[in-house]
Write a structure and sequence with these properties.
The protein has four helices and 20 strands. The protein has 380 residues and is mainly β. It has a single domain, classed as Porin (Beta Barrel). Strand 16 and strand 17 form a beta hairpin.
Amino acid sequence: MILTGKKAFLLMLTICLLIGGKSMGQKIDTVSTLSITAYADAYYAYYTDSVGPDKFQKFPNTSPKSNTPSLNVAQLSVQYNSDKIRAAAVFCYGDFANCTWAPAPYNNIMEAHIGFKVYSKLWIDAGFFRTHFGTEFLLPVENITSSIAVGTYYEPAYESGIKLNFDPTAKLEINLFLLNGYNMFVDNNNTKSFGMGITYTVNDKLGIGYTNYIGDDTPPALLDPPHLRIAHNVFLNYSHKKIKLQLGADYFTQQNSDIATNKSTATMYSALATARYQVGKKAGIYCRGEVFRDPDAIVSPVLTDHAGNKTGYKLWGITAGFEYKPTENSYIKLESRLLQMDKDQYIYVQNGIGQNARYEIMINGGVSFDLLKNFFTRKE
């Protein structure tokens, strides 16, 4: 059952008040911190898919324009933390903001949320968030690779709503979400969606996690029949000495969405495996394999392939790259990727001729820094 917006909000608020009633008599905050950080990434990329100058490629995210040196992102983050209150605002500008984030007027707001401690290790946060769902992050500074997998591209990137955050131990974190929708800041119907994220740190080398999303984001006029989407993600992160490893997989189901009749449940799955090896004090090499299968076009576009069949995207990809870090807070990444579509799926165009594979190469340079530490701290 999907709750309407008012009922879902009242349910979440009631739970928070019941849990938080015990904390009303606690002392006022005595410790608080403020951080202001900045990050920028510039790039040059070349794609064999000829979409034209200054246009975004298929699966646009980082480095989305071909043969056009440009700015991926310029980002400013402000974060406040205290014993009882926390808040964050993250603003971004550049090609990443224009092709990946929410439509205007929200495309330059990456995050904007405020939280309150309601009891011991339990917090409630509300506002605009980056997605809780998935294996990879979205920006080159956060990931082993510069690009993201196609499966990551079709996951939600941003969300809005209310989050319950509970850290019962130093190793376990649990988050519950009441959301406006899948990849939405503003609700498009009168239903609310739900999400969950659980991460567990096994030891200082290994971490595992599970995230999900449950909701029906069909426009109001099309809600009958329902199109309930249930999305699952599992991931594993391993790091030891010179090796980093990341594994992840998604599995989606959606009611009344099979491509043939629109009456049966459709499915989609994707997976990725990424490894990085440190070859020197400042350099590393990495690779990633990925697969994406969406035969009923739950999240990818419907196309008619060269055999005359209607289908969603089916592909695999391989990525290889080299990273050099001149300083601890900067990087240069050189990366190449092959994306191979299923046979008869010619979604790319090169010099006017349809292709079912695309080659790409990109170089990214980025730097991040603490504004308070670097610019506002007076030297003695």
